Amino acid sequence: MSEQTGSEDTVIRVRGLNKRFKDHVVHEGLDLDVRRGEIIGIVGGSGTGKSVLLQQIVGLLKPDAGQIEVLGQSVRDTSDAEYRALRRRWGVMFQDGALFSSLTVRQNVEAPMREQLEISDALRETMAGIKVRMVGLPENAHGKYPSELSGGMRKRAGFARSIALDPEIVFLDEPTAGLDPIGAAAFDTLIRQLQTALGLTVFLVTHDLDSLHAICDRVAVLAEKKVLAVGTMEEMLEIDHPWVKEYFQGPRARAAVGAAASGLA
Amino acid sequence: MQAGQDKGRTAPQASLRSQDQVIILSGDLVIETIETLDGEFGDATGIDISDVAHLDTAGAWYLLQLRQQVSDTSHEIAIRGASAPQRQLLETVRQNMPPEEALDERPVTLFDRLEEIGRTVVGGLHIAIEMIGFLGQVIATIASLVFHPRRLRMTSLVHHMQEVGLKAVPIVALMAFLIGIVLAFQGSAQLRQFGAEVFVVDLIAISILRELGILLTAIIVAGRSGSAFTAAIGSMKMREEVDAMRTLGLDPIEILVVPRVLALVLILPVLGFIADLTGLIGGALMSWIELGVSPAVFQSRLVANTDVWHFAVGMIKAPFFALIIGIIGCYEGLKVGGDAESLGRLTSTSVVLAIFMVIVVDAVFSVFFALVGV
Ligand SMILES: Nc1ncnc2c1ncn2[C@@H]1O[C@H](COP(=O)(O)OP(=O)(O)OP(=O)(O)O)[C@@H](O)[C@H]1O
Ligand SMILES: [Mg+2]
């Protein structure tokens, strides 16, 4: 992937982002850089605008002010054709799956390929099958409809759809929320595995301290309408801010650190 | 349009190096390009991908396919020259290759078709039985509410009466008015041939009061409110609200179904009455214009010649039609599953089935009233 021009390894660059809904200000002067090949964890209290940030980066919501560049191209001021080409290079998994309920799991994964690629039906079906297997869904789940799947299986199916086009970046909105701890850990492993295998950059919105410890290279904290701090988990422990302290040093955080340490041992 | 072009893909090349029988691949091995490769290679001793610029999942799949194709059965040849990430990708894809044997599809036989017909018939019977059971449940709930009137949701009942009743008045009135006009117009054209113009009053009165007023009202209400019931209850079912109610000890039949059905049963006779009235007005107006039958003559002939039973027959049918529309609408709504498609499908089923059943029951009533002689 060396053909990238400009800033070699910053794949997402957000500068001075402002966003408000009526008189409710969500973001004000938000800056964020995401580097190629990393897994960045986005944390923040409920309602601090993590999902809104994600939606603005992928162009679903229009920011009020500020620049957003993904893979060296502005998301806002592009022609339709450029945006379509850009969109093909990322995959999104929404907070509540957003699978197409009238399509089976495999058809869901085929859907973006059908839209974006001109390839034979046989190849498309084979590739969709491989993607569904990659996310660890059992063979009998391929032909099932989303309503016939458990919550965890739906998340996996959503993940399979987001990597359908072999994207460079995947945006995952709380992939492990609502999963049991074992399922969540398995999902973390899956993300890490596919991240290295497919060379992905992962934009991971999460509340899950275990995920942060286990797989995130860096963490960005959203608070006070902007990115308050970015850094590794160790660096987060140094930060002197009440919410950050509470979050990374509270009882649950200590438990997660312990778990991560024993997992390494 | 093609998304691949803007990234400047180089077409992949495949060739066999003759001195050591190694397949050399170069260019971009990605999903858009691999289908342009048509290599039929004989036995080879290796695959070299050091010149491959991009490799994605599909490219990896292609390589593994190719390896299988050119390897002899005893041992697999090596894929050389892969970078570390490429090796990892190949390994991941290898673990997730599609199973060997594709499922062969059996042709559909006559026997299968017979079985399908049988299943459809039995399925239909089951639905009929279930629906009758549901009707019983609703009636039982209504009966228990008679003894505990405080449990009846008055707000909800009034709300639904407004929705299905008051808001339907304009459309129902207009429809009946136009039907009255059409009947008078067509009837007068025929009756004039016999010089029996004045019988147009009987024609209009009997057909509207006895049949058309209430039947057409029921059909409009089925289309308006039956579908709305299914859609509203169905989307609640889809978001698990109905299950949530059950776990909270609230009875969905009491809360969702009874107010709707009761509202319909109370309001459909009123709508039918309005339809009768406007239908007669439309008929009278047209008779006046077309035949010169003055409103006073129309009125006196209507009162003198039309038995009140014609009106009663229409009104007696109204609550039954209401029950059919309400029960079918709510039943189909409660049958909605987790997916959006079933909501749409069941909403249209609900309307079609309700209209069909209304007409069937109307026919049964005709026979019944003919037998009892009114
Ligand atoms: N379409 C919208 N219209 C109005 N307000 C909105 C809209 N979308 C989001 N908001 C508001 O923006 C704020 C941020 O929402 P967002 O969904 O990004 O939160 P979040 O950080 O993802 O929270 P959670 O962790 O609960 O998912 C919330 O206060 C929400 O009420
Ligand atoms: Mg969110």
UniProtKB/TrEMBL annotation, chain A:
Gene3D superfamilies: P-loop containing nucleotide triphosphate hydrolases. Coiled coil: none annotated. The keyword Disulfide bond does not apply. GO terms for molecular function: ATP binding; ATP hydrolysis activity. InterPro entries: AAA+_ATPase (IPR003593), ABC_transporter-like_ATP-bd (IPR003439), ABC_transporter-like_CS (IPR017871), P-loop_NTPase (IPR027417). Keywords: ATP-binding, Nucleotide-binding, Transport. Residues 12-249 form the ABC transporter domain. SMART domains: AAA (SM00382). This is ABC transporter ATP-binding protein.
UniProtKB/TrEMBL annotation, chain B:
This is ABC transporter permease. The chain crosses the membrane at residues 125-147, 168-186, 261-289, 309-331, 351-372. GO terms for molecular function: phospholipid transporter activity. One of its GO terms (cellular component) is ATP-binding cassette (ABC) transporter complex. It is a multi-pass membrane protein. The keyword Repeat does not apply. The keyword Lyase does not apply. Keywords: Cell inner membrane, Cell membrane, Membrane, Transmembrane, Transmembrane helix. Belongs to the MlaE permease family. InterPro entries: ABC_MlaE_roteobac, Permease_MalE, STAS_dom_sf. Could be part of an ABC transporter complex. It is found in: Cell inner membrane.
